[in-house]
Amino acid sequence: MEAELRAGRFPESRLDDPAYGEPGDQPGLVASRARSGGDSVVVVHLELRGTTLALRSIARRVLQLTAEERELAREIESLTRKLAPQLLDQPGVGPHAAAQLVLSWSHQGRITSEAAFARLAGAAPIPASSGQTVRYRLDRSGDRKLNRALHMILATRKRSHPATIAYIERRIQEGKSRREATRCLKRYLARSLYRLLEHGAPIAT
């Protein structure tokens, strides 16, 4: 029997055998009877069968969710290209980041200046000088989803955008840390994206 089970030829009809339990018995009772009979192979078969059913159910759910995610991603990209195509022409700006920028910005005139947009995004540096040391720290307030969109755009640019890579290297040579250079870049990015949103093509409705 054990060889049949390992080879995948163990007939499920054997599970109805009185030696392995009656139909409708609880799994614990079936397992108990199997152990008392000295045959643990049926217990293993039941466990494998339950595990297989669970894995199949999870796999079907994963496929379903993957299909839904891809459909929603296509819809987001379609809407973003309609509302703000100028954003998607910028290096490092993908459909999801562009969608968050549009959501946070909303419409022309809502945010009165690029400084206000930077403050909303948490990209405006806060003075933290002490004595003769002049320094700034990150602003952890504002719209954190917008801040994350800027962060992801910068993360992409730092890997593949030559101008961004050169800027960071130049700032480091000037004595700034990589974190300070990134903070400056995020402030610049907020300013440039705000101008694209505010003075680009009107948002379609």
Notable characteristics:
205 residues; mainly alpha; 2 domains; two-stranded antiparallel ribbon; elongated
Give an overview of the whole structure:
The radius of gyration is 30 Å and the shape is elongated. The protein has a two-stranded antiparallel sheet. It has two domains: 2-68; 84-199, no CATH class. The chain is mainly α and 205 residues long. The protein has helices spanning 2-6, 27-36, 41-83, 85-88, 95-105, 114-120, 144-160, 162-173, 178-199, and strands at residues 126-127, 136-137. The protein contains nine helices and two strands; from the N terminus they run H-H-H-H-H-H-E-E-H-H-H.
Mass-distribution shape: elongated
> Order of strands in the sheet with the most strands?
1-2
Tell me the distance between the termini.
Answer: 69 Å
Sequence of secondary-structure elements: HHHHHHEEHHH
Tell me what portion of residues adopts beta-strand conformation: under 5%
Q: Uncertain regions: pLDDT < 50 for 5+ in a row?
A: 15-35
What is the CA-based Rg, rounded? 30 Å
How many strands, what sense, and barrel or not for the largest sheet? 2 strands, antiparallel
User: What percent of residues adopt helix (DSSP H or I)?
Assistant: 55-70%
Q: Can you give the mean pLDDT?
A: 80
Topology (SSEs and partners):
Elements: H1 2-6, H2 27-36, H3 41-83, H4 85-88, H5 95-105, H6 114-120, E1 126-127, E2 136-137, H7 144-160, H8 162-173, H9 178-199
Helix pairs in contact: 2-3, 3-5, 5-7, 6-9, 7-8, 8-9
Write a brief structural summary:
By secondary structure, the protein is mainly α. It has nine helices and two strands.
